[in-house]
Amino acid sequence: MTEKLQPNQQMKILTPPEGVDRLHPQPGDLFKGNPVNLELLQALEGKSIVGVRDLTREAVIELCKLAAILEQFEIAPYHILDGKIVTTAFFEASTRTRLSFESAVQRLGGRILSIPEGGVTGVKKGESLQDIGQMFNAYCDLVIMRHTDTESVQQIREHLRVPLINAGNGSGEHPTQALADWYALLKWRPSLAETGPTDPEDQLRMGILGTPGSMRAVKSFLLMSLLFQSKIREVTVISEYADPFGADVTEHLEKAGIKYSVTNDIQETLPNLDVIYMNSIAFLGDSYKSLDSRYKLDKDSALKEDAVILHPLARLDELHTNLDETRHNLYFSQAHGAVFVRQALLASVFGRLDRLPEAFSKGGFQA
Ligand code: CP
Predict the structure, then answer these.
(1) Less Cβ crowding at N or C end of the chain, within 10 Å?
(2) 22-174+336-361 falls under which CATH superfamily?
(3) Pocket flag, ligand 1, residue 312 (CB < 6 Å)
(4) pLDDT per position as a tens digit, 207-263
């Protein structure tokens, strides 16, 4: 029995203009003949997601498969989050994370209490995050928070009883950015979701331009990549710093047993890489600044022909706009896909997967 689903109108926006040689991975490649395991995602109901360790490899894959279906088909008629209120509490600037979360909630039929900057809350008068968390319990069903302070997650959770999604805490983590990163990678190369041994020739050589120890998006990307270690031949971090990891990331790398190295020589490293992850903003104490500023990419950089670039954005001058129209650009797919992978996460944490059309778990699609 198949269910008639309407194509997602957003797909029109994501389709590149005629004749442009831009990378545009197809979401259908991720779920065709491979139904989503909704039972596995039910385990996320009521859970807070504060770091990558709150997710398993299997959960990441199933969330990305669900996101791919949501990207392909119109979900608005099903009102998945009907009656739910989400607070987006952003004590630090954001373009993508707050807006893509709010777009995700609205498209699922939920409602938003939006705090676009901390100065409009009692923080301005000296109120503690602990007390603000206590208030959120009465006002909403889930909190999505970003803060400049790494300790903020721990502080707000002291009295918070509704689930929390960490949207970036200082130099801590940004787990849903890592989901958006891996959603883009899995659409680009669906075989990354397969289990079993991988031929070394098919394993990715991954390069990171940045400092995982102080760049939260880079850190979360690296930690999530460790869940896919059998698909990765080597991770090379290109950094001005001799130890760009920090103690806890080093411990995870050692435990995973993945081959990794650090270099400051971008010219020698770049031609070998299949995936390049870059970022420019790093947290130092309670402020942020550009790090590793001498490492820049443009269309004349010595990239492998089929190498892809990921960047969580915002970009400064480290990522030239002349790469936007090339096949190396996976960063727009990464930003666009964030809405769908966040929809998948919200539907799971809210325990509303039973409201999805039956075809989502049966795989019987007919658009
Ligand atoms: N990727 C990301 O976190 O972007 P914003 O700072 O715009 O939210």
Answers:
(1) N
(2) Aspartate/ornithine carbamoyltransferase (3.40.50.1370)
(3) yes
(4) 999 899 889 999 999 999 999 999 999 999 999 888 899 888 999 999 999 999 999
